[in-house]
Design a protein that fits this description.
The protein is of the alpha/beta class. It has a single domain, classed as Rossmann fold (3-Layer(aba) Sandwich), CATH 3.40.50.300. It is globular and about 40 Å long. The two termini are 15 Å apart.
């Protein structure tokens, strides 16, 4: 597990860019944290770092899911499970070979636990900064590419 302090939005952009280089098609990334912790902002910077249009990224709170096209035929699914009472059928299987799936509020559907390859947990600190804890469940060495020292 790696831990990062995100004191500014620029810090969020930096770590999102670094993690975008770690994410790969077939990943299912869990994004946990209270409302306003920065999950959707993080997704916006990941999409931008992967060559997508960050301007179209918004929280899928009411639509449940947004798709973002990325270069090289990869598609990002951005799910918000905050209002979900049961696991949507589309999430019962791992993402396809050309899909990266980002899930806000994965803890709402415990059935997802075995499908998540990377977990990102956001906590709002008392000074307003964010702490991001990142864990890889399939290959912890993937996180070795991230900023040395564990703190941005």
């Amino acid at each position: 597990m790696r831990s990062f302090i995100l004191a500014t939005e620029k810090d969020t952009e930096k770590i999102a860019t670094e993690l975008a280089a770690v994410f790969r098609a077939g990943d299912c990334v869990g994004l946990s944290g209270e409302l306003g912790a920065g999950k959707t902002t993080f997704v916006r910077y990941v999409v931008e770092a992967m060559g997508g249009d960050a301007r179209i990224v918004s929280s899928p709170s009411y639509t449940l899911e947004h798709d973002y096209g990325l270069p090289l035929g990869v598609r990002m699914e951005h799910w918000d499970l905050y209002r979900v009472r049961e696991l949507p059928d589309e999430l019962r299987e791992p993402p396809g070979p050309h899909v990266i799936r980002l899930l806000e509020w994965p803890e709402r559907c415990p059935e997802l636990e075995n499908l998540i390859t990377i977990s990102c947990s956001f906590t709002v600190e008392t000074d307003g900064s964010r702490r991001l804890k990142v864990s890889s469940h399939d290959d912890p060495s993937r996180l070795s590419r991230l900023h040395d020292g564990g703190v941005v």
